[in-house]
Amino acid sequence: MGVRYSIQFCLVSLCISFFVGTWTSKVWAQNDRLSRLQQARQLTLQTLDRVNQGAAPCYDSDCQNQKARLYHQIERSLSRATPLRENLTAHSVYRFLRSPRQELNQNPKTLRDWHAWWKRRYSLEAFQDAEWNAFFESVVQTEKMLQLVWGLVSNPFDLDRIAPRFDRDFREACRLLYSAVLLEEQANQAYRAGDEAKSDRLKDEADRLRDRQKAIEERMGRPLLAITRELLPDQSFGDSLRTFIELDRLMRLFGSSDLLHPDLPGFVRGMHQEWNAVFKPSQDFADLEYGVVGLNNLETIVNPVVAVQNEIRIQSQLDRVEIVGQSLIDLFHYSLLLGAARDFGSGSKLLTFLGLLGSGYAFEKLDWSVARQIFPSSTRTQELLSSLPSLEERLIRRKSSLEKTKTILETKLIEIDRLIETIVQGGESQ
Amino acid sequence: MKNYKNIIIKFGGVCLAALFMLQVFSVSRVVAQEQPPIYMFIAEIEGFLEKSEQLVADAPGLSDDEIKVRIEELMVLSSRASRVYFANIDSDIKPELDRYLHDRLQTSQDIRHFFVLMGNEFLNTARAVLNARQADEKRIRSYSTIGGTVVGLGSGTALLLFAKNLTKNPWVAGLVVVGLGVAGGVAGHYASPLVAEWMLPADPAIKNADDFLRRYPAGEDFISELENLSPDLSAHLQGIEELMSGE
């Protein structure tokens, strides 16, 4: 009897435990899901704020300390991300800490303001910015490629479709074409710089690569463009080529050419997370140093085009000051010449006049000025003007990006709110 | 006295008649004048845009040779547009031409790489204008020799400038600035250079239809990143996706 009651008691306890356990795990899962959705909502609102409001740059001591912490983070993460980092170093980041940028009055009024802008004419800021841009562009490009590849490998349907075509010939053709395009761009840059011999040499090399690529295409039976369009119809030719090249690079690091290997998604995800540890602090550093362009601050100096246009206005005025200063020095120089010419002409006014005229004409023709030898003209205005084209182009892309992201985020917010409501109502009914 | 009065009246009458005739002929000369340059310019640009869009639509079914013929047609149209532009470079309508070009480029971003052809023609015409002004161009030439070199300019941009009136300070003297820029320079990032008040892409290394086709195969910008989101935003979106999917 006692044994029967014990067995019954055990069975009932087991049933109760089973139901309680199921219910508890369901509640936990729901809470976990709810928590993730709430985090997603928070992130969506933060991103929406970033898209709309952007952010101003920051140069106070707290921000400088934050930048120093980010620099160390970037350095540490770069040292861990060895397979992907290639020759990247964080030196350009360090320069900003060594020579911090000054926040200048955009409407200079006092002598101090004007002096600060004058100092900027001879600063190494342009060089610093160029170095940083080169570093950040590399980080961003790698991040973009990893995002594209992750999008590919995380979708098993895409992998099933691509795997049969992702053979040795296809990969080789992609590599050859991309290398040819890189060489052609270097050739173009050499041509723009006036080095036609180097440009021709690079173009010949590019032609040889293209010939090899065409030979492979003939073996494959279809042009590369047609194959990439079929495999990745939503991407441009260039993007799909870069995606496949990056995928090829990661497969080599992975140590297998099997796109359907079960460990591949995990490997790519790991690589992406490793690189994210470089990308995120770099992006945060850029946000603090340069600000963030959003839809509502396009008219402010956070927009680099506006900042440069404003500075051109200020530097043009300083250019006039420079010219007046140089003219005064030249005038002093001419007056010395006048004295010398008078002595040389033995007091003859005609000889003095001719001598002065002749030397003035010679200097003008030779475009030579004593003042410019002593105080060379600043090239700040030229640098600013020359940076405008690329900044405008970047801004066009940024604005388009912001508008698209805003639409996506607003849709996501509605979806998240709906999911949260479903879970909450489901929880209440329980 | 009466004679003098008659002479004065006759003379006055002849003058009035002459003035009247002058007015009439001036008006008819105005009416008989060619179409204002702005309309000629617009016609060339619109023709260019239409043909570019047609090329993009037809490209998948065309051979490389057929595409090259179409590209050469676009180069001819660009050359005509640039001649109209530079014929009016010192006129009052220049800002209007620039504004129009700017607006059309902004609204034609999906075919902006075709504007490289136009930018190149503008550059060629600008060079011809510069050469024609050789005598006063020493200072200008010293700037244009910077063209293409990267040193000291960070972004690798060069400027081609020519002045309306040469003075000691070309930045002040109502300059017409034609800019040529190369942005980035890091492997994988190739923004097109820009010309004509920063509004047109240009690349002097693209000398013919074949060069253009290599850089922009099948009418598409090979290295275009126009459609992609900025990486900071796409990273955030990816994070949101992962949280929503529960990864």
If you had to describe this structure to a student in words, what would you say it looks like?
The complex is a heterodimer of chains A (about 425) and B (about 250). Chain A is about 80% helix and about 0% strand. Chain A has 16 helices and no strands. By secondary structure, chain B is mainly α. Chain B has eight helices and four strands, in the order ααααααββββαα. Chain B has helices at about 1-30, 35-60, 65-85, 95-105, 115-130, 140-145, 210-215, 230-245, and strands spanning about 160, 175-180, 195, 200. Chain B has a two-stranded antiparallel ribbon. In chain B, a hairpin with a 4-residue loop joins strand 3 and strand 4 (about 200). The interface between A and B is large, with 85 and 73 residues.
Attribute tags:
heterodimer; A: 430 residues; mainly alpha; 16 helices; B: 247 residues; two-stranded antiparallel sheet; two-stranded antiparallel ribbon
Give unreliable regions of chain B as ranges: 24-33, 134-198
User: What is the string of SSEs of chain B from the N terminus onward?
Assistant: HHHHHHEEEEHH
Shape of chain B: elongated
Q: Which chains make the largest contact?
A: A-B, 85 and 73 residues
The major beta sheet of chain A can be summarized as: none
Distance between the termini of chain A: 38 Å
Average residue-wise pLDDT of chain A:
82
- The overall pLDDT of chain B, averaged over residues, is 64
Would you identify the regions of chain A where 5 or more consecutive residues have pLDDT less than 50?
Answer: none
Could you provide a short overview of the structure?
Chain A is mainly alpha-helical.
